[in-house]
Amino acid sequence: MTHIFPTYQQFPMELVSGHDWYLVDQAGHDYLDFTSGIGVCSFGYSNDQIQTNVVAQLGKVWHTSNLYPSQLQDQVADLLAPQGMLAFFCNSGTEANEAAFKLARKYTGKAKILAFKNGFHGRTFGSMSLTGNPAIQTGFTPLVPGVEFAPYNETAALDQINDELAAVILEVIQGEGGVIPADVDWLQAVAKKCHDQGVLLIIDEVQTGIGRTGTKFAYQQFNVEPDIITCAKALGNGLPIGAMLGKKELAVAFGPGSHGTTFGGNKIALAAAKGVLQQLTPAFLKTVQAKSHTLLAALNKQVADLPIVTQITGLGFMIGIHLTPSVKVAHVIAHLQQQRLLTLSAEHNTLRLLPPLVMSESDLLAGVQLIQTELQQQAASVDSLVN
Ligand SMILES: *Cc1c(COP(=O)(O)O)cnc(C)c1O
Fold first, then answer.
1. Are 83 and 216 in contact (CB under 8 A)?
2. Whole domain around residue 89: which residue ranges?
3. Ligand 1 atom at minimal distance to the Cα of residue 92
4. How far is the CA of 157 from the centre of ligand 1 (A)?
5. What is the pLDDT of residues 80-121, one digit of tens each?
6. Do 321 and 204 fall into the same domain?
7. Whose CA is nearest to atom 10 of ligand 1?
8. Within this chain, do residues 138 and 261 fall inside the same structural domain, yes or no?
9. Does ligand 1 lie within 6 Å of residue 176's CB atom?
10. What is the mean pLDDT of the chain?
11. Residues 301 and 214 in one domain
């Protein structure tokens, strides 16, 4: 890739096509996909409904700008947003968080925002400034002022929530940070303190949303109520689309001219999102929950007790296998690739699994078997080094 900025350390093979929940490289090898393109292609690579919607829209019109109303945007917003919320469509997760950051400041008239250590919200200046990982911020200062950080899952964080804040932003499961779920009691206490202090609660569902954890949004399993939700990744099954959802009363701060986007809400991406959301029914989510229980049970039985595994975390189809420092997750990923299984990493030497939600139970279990074998071999070679 001599013409491309080297911002990514890339794997050796290009994936040139896909089917079901498999990807195919230039040499024609099939790979079982436990990544979904980083939590994006939740309906896999041969979904009729999404394909049909996109192809039909391709034959009509691709883009009209947001100067004209769009029935499709209204339909997708209706399918996506919880009762009493409105949508702003954009093209990515970071843009959804930028919109949330701007809306929170404008609506409250306050500047400060509290984010969490080890969190991830994106790479543009606003969302990078909200990202609690110094490695991602290095070299880019000065960052957006007014951002403070609190420790995730720690009671001390509650002391940092006061009426000087415009908003608190968090992930209910820190994804890039190592698949770390919030403690339910802690998250409820954070939400309550926000409510009591008049601070907006922004929940970043970019990775956890759109069924990834077995419910449409992950926060639904924590019994908290956000004022603003951001989503992206799986919303278009691979076409670029993000959305910021917010309570109706926030609309006074987002009138004409306040915020905008050329491409956001474009008709091709929206056609894909409509196909995704039409299929994200309660019945479908039940199948995801059932399969995720099977997946987690298999991991607990076959992988959790291996000597190089410290713990398994996550919810639904979002799982972190935490490895001891004696093995490098990058090596595990490379070996699994040779076994034709694609996996991801996350912070703190975590093997991250984000399989498409449509994957069959038998292929989920086949993936677990490959992971077990690989981690057993890694454990054995660590053992032989030690002895
Ligand atoms: C991926 C991610 C983002 C950034 O999304 P982009 O589409 O890459 O800008 C933001 N928040 C969370 C939680 C994410 O996982």
1. no
2. 48-279
3. 7
4. 23
5. 999 999 999 999 999 999 999 999 999 999 999 999 999 999
6. no
7. 121
8. yes
9. yes
10. 97
11. no
114 CA → ligand 1 middle, Å: 18
203 pocket-lining for ligand 1 (C-beta < 6 Å): no
Residues 273 and 372 in one domain: no
What is the position in ligand 1's atom list of the atom closest to the CA of 127? 10
Calculate the dihedral angle through the C-alpha atoms of 162, 168, 172, 174, rounding to the nearest 10 degrees.
-110
Phi and psi at 380, nearest 5°, equal: -65, -40
Domain count, the chain: 2
pLDDT recorded at residue 382: 83
pLDDT band at 386 (very low <50, low <70, confident <90, very high): low
Measured in Å, residue 94 CA sits from the centre of ligand 1 at: 6
The length of the chain, given as a count of residues: 387
Alpha helix (H) ranges present in the chain? 36-39, 48-58, 71-80, 93-108, 125-129, 134-137, 184-197, 267-279, 282-302, 329-338, 361-386
Q: What is the mean pLDDT of residues 221-238?
A: 98
Taking 90 as the threshold, does the pLDDT of residue 385 lie above it?
no
In a domain? residue 123: yes
256-280: pLDDT as tens digits? 999 999 999 999 999 999 999 999 9
DSSP string, 74-131: HHHHHHHSPTTEEEEEESSHHHHHHHHHHHHHHHH---EEEEEBT----SSHHHHHT-
Has residue 159 been placed in a domain?
Answer: yes
9 located within any domain:
no
| Whether residues 372 and 225 fall in one domain | no
Q: Which of 279, 303, 334 is the last residue of a domain?
A: 279
Q: Which of 206, 230, 239 has most ligand 1 atoms within 8 Å of its beta carbon, as the pocket-test mutant?
A: 206
User: Which of 207, 244, 344 has most ligand 1 atoms within 8 Å of CB, for mutation?
Assistant: 207
Q: Residue 20: give its domain's CATH number.
A: 3.90.1150.10
Residue 72 · residue 270 · CB < 8 Å: yes
pLDDT tens string 332-355? 999 999 999 999 999 999 999 999
On whether residue 368 sits in a domain, the answer given is: yes
For the Cβ of 175 lying below 6 angstroms from any atom of ligand 1, the answer is yes
User: pLDDT for 45-56, tens place per residue?
Assistant: 999 999 999 999
